[in-house]
Specification:
This protein is mainly alpha-helical. It has 2 domains: 134 residues, no CATH class; 193 residues, MFS general substrate transporter like domains (Growth Hormone, Chain: A, Up-down Bundle), CATH 1.20.1250.20. Helices cover 71% and strands 3% of the residues. The strands form 2 sheets. A two-stranded antiparallel ribbon has the order 1-2. Strands 3-4 form a two-stranded antiparallel sheet. A hairpin with a 4-residue loop joins strand 1 and strand 2.
Length: 343
Amino acid sequence: MLSTVKRVAIPNPRYSAYGYEMLSKDEERPEVVQHDLFTNAEDATDKEHKLTLFSAIKLYPKAIAWSVIMSTSLVMDGYDLKLVGSLFAQPAFREAYGHRLSDGTYQISAPWQSGLNNGSNVGQMIGLLVAGVLVERFGFRKTMMVALVSVPCVIFIQFFATGLPQLQAGQVLLGIPLGIFQTVSCVYAMEVVPVSLRAYLTGFVSECWQIGQLLATCVLRGTLSMDAPWAYRVPFALQWFWPIPLLIATIFAPESPWWLVRQNCIEEAKASVFRLASGEKDPDFNIDKNVALMVLTTEHEREANSGISYLSCFRGTDLRRTLIVMGCYIVTVTTGSTVRAYA
C-alpha cells in the first residue's frame, strides 16, 4: 500500500488552477504542496482498498463496460485458435488444400498442420513483444485501433488463399494484432478499475477466449454441409465483421488515466477518470486525489527504477514478481493441453 512506501524525492509537483502539474527539477517546490500530494495520494489509496466488490461496481460501471469492450477483442483470438485446427477435419478444406491418398481421400500433411497451428502463435509472440512499446508511446486507444484496422486486411489473405503457403502467411500476420489484443485488453482492465475489480475483469479475458472457440465450433458445424469453397471461406469471412463494432467503440473509449499521467497529461487524466467513474454516486470520491495517487506512484516507480524498461522486470523485487507471473502462465501449458490437442 502507498502508506508503507518510502517517501522518495520526486520531480516537483504543483497545483495549477485545476490540479497537479510537473515542474522542472530546477524549480522549487513548496513544502505544503508536497505534503498535500502525499496526503491526497494516501487518502485515495485508503479509499480504493476499502472499496467492496459491490461498491466498486456501483462507482465504476462505465470503467467495467469499457474494459469488457476492450476484452471482447480476444473473442477473435479464441475464434482463430479453434478455426484452423478444426478445418483440418472438414472435407471441403482437405480437398482444396490437402493431397490425395491411395484410398481416394484427402489429407493435410502433419508438417503443414503443425505449421498452420503454430503460425498464429509465432505472430502472437511478435505482437505481445511490440504491444508494450506501442502502448507506452501511443496509448491504449491508438494501439488498439491500428490493430483492429489491420485485421480485415489480413483476412483477405486467408479468404483468397489458393495454397497452404498463403494460409501460413495469413496465420502469422493475423497473430500479430491478436497478440496486441492480449496485452492491451488485460493491462487496460488493470488500469481503469480499482483493485477489487481487477481479478474479475482480467479473468473475463479468458472467458472471451472460450466464447471465441465456442463460436468457431458453431460456425464450422453450420458450414459443414456447404459446397466448396464457401464451406471454409465463410468461417474466414465472418472475421471481417468483428473488428467493426470494436473499432467504433474504441474511438469513443477513454484513454487510461495512468498512461496519461505517465505522459504528464494531468488534465486529460482527470477527464478520463471523470468518464470512467460515477462520482456522483459516492460523495467521498475525489478525482484530484485519485490523480494524485497516480502521479505519486508513477514518479516513485521512475525514481526507483531510473526509467521504465523491460530490463527493470528482472532486477530486485521486480524479478520475484516477474517469476511469479511467468509461473502462473506456464501452469496453463504444463498441464499437457497442447499435447492432448495433437493427439
